[in-house]
């Protein structure tokens, strides 16, 4: 019986409210649900568990590298056990971590249902959360181009090198109604837009202010999706100096750093209130 490991791990994590997951036990249960006998499931589980734990470990490390809170972590005394992350922090922080995780999941689902125009406003909001100033949505189109722009002003007193450093920021948003892949061709088109802007050519001349176009200050391009990226897309972005933000990252930024209290109705984020806010940004 051939098992798709990724789908298998998704099953392991899906709709989990339990405090812990015993990986070998849950693996056996899922295999039995796939039609194997108990003995067959135990034998197949022995082959799968090490692979599953390696992939989960990579998933957790990837979350940390992207600044995302993973939902689970391995128990320190038994690496067959996953512990829910909000229960593994100090009690004063537990409520905040749990709220961030819950709101992140709600935001992710809401973003799937919004329009591409509203997603451009989400991009603006996330950039502002990350200290991009004078951030504006351009008069662009659905087919790509530069959707948002602004200025990163690093007037920090902590280090001299950052004092009064100003950087131009441009962003392109790619909305995926199913939270699917933002492709390599999507990012490659953005590379072309960036090159044209640097040569002061193309559609960017019509959607960006002249001061921004003529500025000699450094330029950082950011590609934002509510989906995910594969390896070839990440390589294209890296080779062209493009920062990639995915759906988990932007949902967590909103959940963690933006005051969502004005959108809460009966303990949940009110989708209509959030959409109204985005449309008035």
Your description of this structure?
This protein has 11 helices and 10 strands. It is of the alpha+beta class and 281 residues long. It folds into 2 domains: 5-88, no CATH class; 105-279, 3-Layer(aba) Sandwich (Trna Endonuclease, Chain: A, domain 1). The strands form 3 sheets. It has a 5-stranded mixed β-sheet with strand order 4-5-6-7-8, with helices on both faces. Strands 1-3-2 form a 3-stranded antiparallel β-sheet. Strands 9-10 form a two-stranded antiparallel ribbon. α9 (231-239) links the parallel β7 (219-225) and β8 (243-245). α2 (23-33) crosses α3, α4 (91-113) crosses α10 and α6 (184-198) runs parallel beside α9. The termini are far apart.
Task: Sum this structure up briefly.
The protein is an alpha+beta fold and 281 residues long.
General shape: elongated
Q: Taking all residues together, what is the mean pLDDT?
A: 87
**Rg measurement, Å:** 22 Å
Following the backbone from N to C, one meets helices and strands in this order, namely HEHHEEHHEEEHHHEHEHEEH
How are the elements arranged and paired?
Blueprint: H1 5-13, E1 20-22, H2 23-33, H3 38-65, E2 72-75, E3 78-84, H4 91-113, H5 116-129, E4 132-137, E5 148-154, E6 165-174, H6 184-198, H7 204-207, H8 210-214, E7 219-225, H9 231-239, E8 243-245, H10 247-257, E9 264-265, E10 268-269, H11 271-279
Parallel strand pairs: 6-7, 7-8
Antiparallel strand pairs: 1-3, 2-3, 4-5, 5-6, 9-10
Helix pairs in contact: 2-3, 4-10, 5-10, 6-9
